[in-house]
Amino acid sequence: MIKVVTATAKDLPTLQDLDLKTYHYPLSDKGWKYALIDSPCKVGMAQIGTTYVGFALFEQADGALDIHRLGVLSKFRGLGAGKTLLQTANALARDLHSLKLRVIVPSCHCENDKDNVSNWLKGQGFRAKGVKTDFFKMYGDLYDGYLFERGVK
Ligand SMILES: CC(C)(COP(=O)(O)OP(=O)(O)OC[C@H]1O[C@@H](n2cnc3c(N)ncnc32)[C@H](O)[C@@H]1OP(=O)(O)O)[C@@H](O)C(=O)NCCC(=O)NCCS
User: Fold this and answer.
1) Distance 82 CA to ligand 1 centre (A)
2) pLDDT tens-digit map of 107-143
3) Is the minimum distance from the CB of 103 to ligand 1 under 6 angstroms?
4) Which of 50, 54, 60, 64 can pair with 81 through a Cys bridge, CB separation 3.0 to 4.6 Å?
5) Crossing angle for the helix pair 29-36 and 12-22, nearest 10 degrees?
6) What superfamily would CATH give domain 2-151?
C-alpha cells in the first residue's frame, strides 16, 4: 500500500536524496529551506512499507496549487506512487479552496525525452496551457517551461 506522509525539516536528508535521484536539476539548499521552513509550502513523501519512494512539493499561488516537484524513484515507477502524490495535491487544493493544479515542466523533459512527462500528465487529466519562455535555467542553458493545468476534483 502506498501512503503519503507530510515531511518536516527533519526529513531534509531523505528529501534531498529523493530529489537528486528523480530530478536532473536538484533544488538548492536555499530552496529546501524555503520549502520546509520559510513558507507555507507543503512537502509530501510517498511510502511503500517503510521505504520512501517519492516526494512532492506544493505551494498555493494565485488561486492555484503549484506542484513545484513531484518525483518517484525509477525502480518504484508504474506502481501508482505518482498518482497517489497527485491525489494528495488534489486534497490539499480542495482544503485551500484552490481552483486548479498547476505544473510547469522543462521543454527538454517533454520533447525528445523517452520519459516524456507530458504524456503522464495528460494521462492524469492535465491539459497543456501555454509556454513560459526561458523559464528554467539548467545545464548552463535556458529552457522554456510548458504549463499544464487540471481542475481540482
Ligand atoms: C512522472 C512520474 C512522477 C510518474 O510516477 P509513477 O509513480 O511512475 O506514476 P504512476 O505509477 O502513479 O502512474 C500512474 C498512471 O500513469 C501511467 N504512466 C506511467 N508512466 C507513464 C508515462 N511515462 N507516460 C504515460 N503514462 C504513464 C500508468 O500506466 C498509470 O496509468 P493509470 O492511471 O491508467 O493506471 C515519474 O516518472 C517521475 O518521477 N519522473 C521524473 C520526475 C518528473 O519528471 N517529474 C515531473 C512530474 S510533474
Assistant:
1) 6
2) 988 887 777 899 999 999 999 999 999 999 888 899 9
3) yes
4) 54
5) 120
6) Gcn5-related N-acetyltransferase (GNAT) (3.40.630.30)
